Fold each of these.
Amino acid sequence: MGALRGGGCVFAEEEAAVILEAAGGDGGELERLVRERVAGRPLEHLVGWAAFAGLRVVVEAGVFVPRRRTELLVREAVREAPDGAVVVDLCCGSGAIGAAIAAYGEGRIRLTTDADGDTVFEAVPAGGERGRGGAVGPARDGEAGDAGGGGADGERGGGADGGPGRGGFGAVDTDGEGEWGGFGVVDGDGEGGRGGFEVVAADVDGAAVASARRNLGAGRVFQGDLFGALPVGLRGRVDVLVVNAPYVPSAAIATMPAEARLHEAGIALDGGGDGLDVQRRIVAGAREWLSPGGRLLIETSEDQAPLTSALFEAAGLAPRVVRDESLDATVVVGHAGARAPQRECGTTAPGHQGARCSRRDGKPERTSRRAD
Ligand SMILES: C[S@@+](CC[C@H](N)C(=O)[O-])C[C@H]1O[C@@H](n2cnc3c(N)ncnc32)[C@H](O)[C@@H]1O
């Protein structure tokens, strides 16, 4: 721990515990991990995972490390998503956002209030076949300076559950053509506490896609430029489009902490002149992909929120800004008009709500999935 502290690691004690676990009792490996950490490699890239929203999320070398502040985006997304919602995590990086939304839908994580009165995600205690551990990870935040409103400062942290592994997801449609068949509602434990969501993710970067496939399942993650990566059958069917795209202004990249600047892909950070180049393209294209009444949620900075909101307005996506001071997080939420009636699940069995029932897995409708 002395080496970590001497090397400037702000949370040396917590990092030491994570590194010790990763070394698995191998002295040589422990030495290598400490050496590389002191040399400035992000802890998450060294051990191969990041704590996010009560999960351990696989993050391979070069991939953007999910930030704690992005949990606000997850929170707002699950608030907005109806049961059985088709959710797309665009610019997914490691797929942390999509993985957390899926986990929430499956009842593997939940929202709670911590000792400071803040709303946080936590892993649902291990039970039966899930076999997951409780939240153990320390919060890591406050590292180095912020990039001046960008999406990639030094802030990370959150709880961690027992492992990144995921179960299967059932049928997949990976060809990107024709009618969207869907994946079926994900419901982790078979008796589940939630309606579940159909989560799809996409990113242009191959390394990010590789990590996201490990977090979400291979058939759910597509590679390509923004909407061009998505199966065309999803057009007009996305209930919640959730996005943390790069939004650091190009000129601010040089002021970012070295961990981000040197170890995360430039394409993950650089949002162009005003930081909004990628957001601009996403907002302009969103309506074509959203279902009637669908939601678009984009993480931005407090300073950039008025600009992001103006993009939403111009695209006819009535915006509202959500701010969480304790996470220093800002999200713009827009909606494409009133929600359409939910799709039929096609069963008249007890517990279903006839034409309003959104379930597609033959289980009774649940309506109390909201976070609050
Ligand atoms: C700030 S990172 C966020 C990653 C992830 N959403 C998260 O919060 O952890 C931005 C991501 O956008 C991706 N990206 C940038 N430009 C893109 C584009 N034109 N099409 C698809 N993905 C893009 C990058 O590869 C990177 O993974």
Amino acid sequence: MDVSDIAKLLGLAAGGVGLAGAVSWAKASLRSAKTSESSAADADALTAALAESYERVAQFEHILSRANDEKRDLWRFWPAAPPRGLSKPEGEGAPRIVSFVNLKGGVGKSTLAANLAAHFALARGMKVLLMDLDYQGSVSNTVLPAVRRDAPTTNIREWFADDRDPVRILGELEDIGGALPGSALAASSYDLAPFEQRLWLRWILGETEDDVRFRLAQTLWSDHALRRFDLVFLDVPPRMTLTAVNALCASTHFIVPTLLDRTSTQPIEFMLRQFQTLFWGLGGGPRCAGVVANLTKLEPYLLDGEESRRLEIVETLRQYESRAKIFERHVPHREDIAESAGLGFAYHRSERARAIFDRLGDEIAEALFGAEGARVASDAPHDADNAATRH
Ligand SMILES: Nc1ncnc2c1ncn2[C@@H]1O[C@H](COP(=O)(O)OP(=O)(O)OP(=O)(O)O)[C@@H](O)[C@H]1O
Ligand SMILES: [Mg+2]
């Protein structure tokens, strides 16, 4: 057994044969090495290498059998290890970190995250960090045109990289102050998808040093972020991806946009149940601030069918999230909102849309900051009228 044999061993392990095949080949080589005088010295080195390989195989077999257990949620594969020395912001004056989430697609997560960010920045003078965690980039594509930019210069991938540095990440955010004063955007693009799949796989295999579910929290809970922003809005993809799980682990609250049609109540119930299991053992998870009905048919009333769906959701919330409510202000299907996608904030482009998001924003502010906190936060608004006409 010499260097070239060890190289062959590693090659076999990395190739189709897998570690188990490589070890049985190495065992056979060891038997023949022990019988030959000249190879006896190499046998000790090989025995040590074999012991290590055995350990690796045992570890991989253990991982494989756990992964094959259908009852196991792969997002709870390893025990939680939140970042040391940091904790989720809490208390009256603390920033709120809010995920817009629904595992059902096309319900208005991105639209509401962007336009409510505009409400909090312009009507309440808050510094908002708007984060696009979906590789589709809906929020990025809508917000960048508002500051006359076509493409982002940064990528949300940096937040999840092994060599991430919170100070550098926060220093490189997209400046959207021209549209929302004091606010910033963390943009995403399609290359996020393969990146997050690979990182998830490495974590399952025990190949990362940290708990990758808390990489976003590591930057968002840092002093730098908490001092700079009053509010963080996270646009979460409609799938339990690495970024979605990170968003939920980092968030203080979540908001559920939904339609009021026949297919929408069950996904909410499924999601709330899934969150309960996921966050049992993961530090509690975020609190549901409430549900927003979007794309309703008529303004300002609900049709009978929509009202029935609303009551079903109220019932679901009572079971799973007793403090959460469905907000009074629903968002109707409006052409000015649809047409703004990819062009800028509807909040800037339509007075009527702005009135809807302001009214909804008032309710959400109260759910996030309490009645008193919401009032204080609205004392120093930017000039929303002027900002609206500028865009
Ligand atoms: N109130 C509304 N009036 C008109 N169009 C709307 C409204 N809300 C959302 N839309 C449009 O509906 C589509 C889906 O909205 P959006 O992208 O915000 O949903 P989403 O939940 O983020 O979707 P996904 O699950 O794919 O991320 C978009 O084309 C958007 O412009
Ligand atoms: Mg979206």
